[in-house]
Amino acid sequence: MIFGMGNQASYRAETGSNRGLGATFAFDWSPGDVNRQNSQITPSLRYNGPIPSRPRDTVAFGFLYSNIGDPFQAIGVPLGPRLGSEEAIELNYAAHLTSYFLIQPVFQYYKDVGGNSHVPNAAVFGFRTQVNFRSRSGAL
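^ thats the sequence. predicted structure below, dont judge the formating
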């Protein structure tokens, strides 16, 4: 497997702060005869501190392109079209409600679900949570 990821701060609202826009690009590849989804490209944008009074919050938008490896393109669709690729977008907002609790509503939209152009596109709504049990000193 080959994996690469880059992250670049693109704009800062105030000198020396983390508040502003950042861009990320990730790519992974593995042999198509080993993994069903053998390559993915994931560019995204993230804005830290979109609300000035909430500097730890982030809003992010990402795109995902996944390719189905050649040997797997006909599996599960004997009479239908060969599988190809799947695309998705995601929009989320990570709200740090307290110093130890985060909630992140998420919207995702998938095109050609599972690489099958005959499967209807799908919208997914959900949320993630994170609870941090570290003390202020960083010890558990």
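The beta strands are 2-12, 20-29, 37-48, 58-68, 85-96, 101-111, 122-131.
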